[in-house]
Write a structure and sequence with these properties.
The structure is a single chain. It contains 11 helices and 26 strands. It is α+β, with helices and mostly antiparallel strands. It has a 5-stranded mixed sheet with strand order 3-7-4-11-8. Strands 2-12-9-10 form a 4-stranded antiparallel sheet. The chain has a 4-stranded antiparallel sheet with strand order 17-25-22-23, covered by helices on one side. A hairpin with a 1-residue loop joins strand 9 and strand 10. The radius of gyration is 26 Å and the shape is globular.
Length: about 450
């Protein structure tokens, strides 16, 4: 059986298995607002590292000229990143890209494996992700405080236990298969989301839905009439209508105050922080409620398949389509639930309407509040939209429904894969599970 050997990161540096850990620029020259560009060299902060990847769409960029003026923080393909300030313990591996290198802020350390015969960089990343390492890292960094930080010198004292390179690669292979499938699912869902938004825009913003001949209505010369309420042209025969006139229900969940107690039981209490990118986040940070509390909330919210969740305070207007009857979760009072009047529209169309750019503009302009911006039910229901009747909505839904269902299937699969990976990771990283070892 392969033995695991306990080291510190400093040991691996002295043995030249890992290069001296480095974090971002500490020189006198720091990029400021005017230094950032739309394209150039990525300038990666801890907040740009999410779910084990670098979010290049979110991070800022600096020019090659500006990058050359910085004293350090040059990270290359294959380097393992570890956030060590404020947001502690996020990890990623610098991927192959068109960028010659990345620049890092002082929030992020990069580790460069020098001896790949003794240490696999993906193994190092997974080890950094392991619960035991994360607990030690955050404990020593004082995670939770406003000054949470663990510098390079202190990082060298962090423990790391590694087996021989053969077993490292076997462990990496097991976890990589899961992560690659998760990444593929996420890529497909991103493409589906772009396609869904494009179809909605094409039909109900540009008004190029198929006419009776199957041609795009507006582009083929379909007659447009100016609408005084909407202050825009809409197809002939269409009219303006308020959101409140095409929904059957507008409700919310329940505040725990005087109703029930948080922190008891195994059911999830969903707030605005748990609704992101068309999905609900169930994790260790989600509040819990008892079976009795869940029953109390159910009596108020009455969530059904096809209902749309809509966050009512900042960030306003994040949406979620309910594909399955909730069994172990419900919502708080800051999440609206809206139900379509199926005589006038479909739940799928309502979801796209509530998720649209036009709705985001409306909610931004209509939200009020000195501390937390929010929108009230009556204000939301006053939203006006062009309405063409059920035939065009049903035709649109026939195209949209399988795309939304495919997204949901992939989200569900990805959630299960994440749970499997998180279950396997600690056991693989402490030698509790043996993977394909030769005798």
């Amino acid at each position: 059986m392969t033995k695991w050997h306990l080291h510190t990161i400093g040991d691996l540096v002295r043995e030249k298995i890992i290069a001296e850990p480095m974090d971002g620029n500490h020189g006198e020259i720091h990029p400021k607002g005017n230094d950032f560009t739309k394209i150039g060299i990525p300038f990666v902060m801890a907040s740009d590292i999410k779910n084990g990847l670098i979010d290049f769409d979110r991070c800022k960029y600096i020019s090659k000229y500006q990058a050359d003026k910085l004293r350090k923080g040059f990270s290359q393909v294959g380097d393992v990143l570890l956030s060590h300030k404020a947001t502690i313990g996020r990890t990623a591996i610098v991927p192959k890209s068109d960028f010659p290198y990345l620049m890092l802020t002082p929030q992020v350390t990069y580790y460069r494996v020098l001896d790949s015969d003794k240490l696999n960089n993906k193994f190092l990343k997974y080890y950094f992700d392991s619960p035991l390492f994360q607990r030690i890292l955050k404990l020593r960094a004082g995670a939770g405080s406003t000054r949470a930080y663990l510098g390079i010198i202190a990082q060298k004292d962090l423990p790391i236990s590694i087996p021989d390179i053969k077993l490292q690669k076997q462990l990496v292979d097991v976890l990589s298969v899961i992560d690659e499938k998760i990444e593929l699912n996420n890529q497909i869902n991103s493409e589906l989301e772009a396609m869904i938004n494009l179809i909605y825009d094409y039909w109900f913003v540009q008004f190029d839905f198929p006419d009776e001949s199957g041609k795009p209505y507006k582009s083929s010369g379909g007659k447009m009439i100016y609408n005084e309420v909407l202050k825009r042209e809409i197809p002939e025969g269409w009219n303006d209508i308020s959101l409140g006139n095409i929904i059957l229900k507008s409700g919310t969940g329940l505040n725990p105050r005087r109703n029930f107690k948080l922190g008891e039981g195994e059911n999830f209490y969903i707030t605005i922080k748990n609704i992101k990118n068309g999905r609900i986040i169930f994790d260790d940070n989600t509040d819990r409620i008892s079976d009795k509390s869940l029953e109390i909330i159910n009596q108020r919210s009455d969530l059904q398949i096809g209902d749309i969740l809509f966050t009512s305070i900042d960030p306003v207007g994040v949406t979620y389509f309910i594909h399955e009857k909730p069994k172990n979760w419900n919502i708080n009072e800051s999440v609206f639930t809206l139900r379509a009047d199926k005589k006038l529209l479909t739940p799928e169309f309502l979801f796209m309407l509530l998720s649209s750019k036009e709705m985001k503009v409306f909610t931004k302009q209509s939200s009020a509040g000195s501390i937390h911006k929010g929108i009230r039910h009556e204000v939301l229901k006053d939203f006006k939209l062009p309405y063409g009747g059920m035939p065009v909505i049903l035709s649109f839904t026939k195209i949209l429904r399988p795309l939304l269902e495919r997204q949901h299937i992939l989200y569900t699969e990805t959630q299960k894969l994440n749970e499997l990976r998180d279950w396997l990771l600690p056991m693989l990283m402490n030698g509790q599970v043996i993977v394909g070892e030769a005798s």
